[in-house]
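Thread: "does anyone have the structure for this chain?"

Original post by V.I.:
We have the sequence but no experimental structure in hand. Need at least a predicted one for the grant figures.
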Amino acid sequence: MKNYKLNLFLEINTSNYIFFVGKSDENNNLEVIFKLELPLAGIENNKISDSEKFLNLIKENLFLIEQKFNYTFKKIVIILENLNPIFINVSGYKKLNGSQILRENITYILNTLKSLIEETELDKKILHLLQTKATLPLSEISRRVGISKTPCWNRIRAMEESGVIKERITVLDREKIGLPLVIFLSISVGRHSREWTEDFMHTIQKYDQIIEVHRLTGSGADYMIKIVANSIDEYDNFQQTLIGDLEFTKMSSSVSLQELKFSHNLPLGAIK
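Reply from O.Q.:
Generated one for you, tokens below.
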């Protein structure tokens, strides 16, 4: 066993508890070597209904598993349905050691897990509101998510500092400001040297008419450039300018006939 590390997992689903022991090697290849499935106890409707029963079940089976493998686990991976695994390291400030485990050890783990889940859900609600209307007053945001203004502001500031919220902008109606035309310009290039890439990056940043640029794979083009313009004549003049600025092997334009969907709102389901 000295070349392997043992990992303990606890899955809690709608019908049972499942303890897993996994054996991982130095390349992090994981093999499940033990599984213990027990009927759900102490939980009803996704809430802890009997904490005594719930905590004793974890304590007793953890002791049996450690006895079986003669191994003291320093970490439990708790898995809940529809959530990514959350790793909570209890070594250093809590002693997790078979029969000596105390109720507050498990309570701490579960409360920490519950807190992380609740904070994530709060963040999702706040982000949904800000994506819908960035100018919404803090008092209204806090009212809608159900927390006071100070913790609400702290969560917004934390997401700004971490880069989740990049910036808050005003979205203009391009047709009302005289830019009804959207063109997708595809270009293919013969070389991808550092010098060419630097020139290309400088060029696309130089023109406000260019609002998006994507590097592509799986198609004939290397780059897709989204451009807005007042008219075909204006775009034609701008395209001639780009031809003079860029070195490329092929260029083609596609004009959007109708914009069927436009949104800055990102789906929030991926946030865990």
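V.I.: this helps a lot. Confidence is low (pLDDT under 50) at residues 82-103.
O.Q.: and Helices lie at 51-69, 103-132, 138-145, 149-162, 194-206, 232-245.
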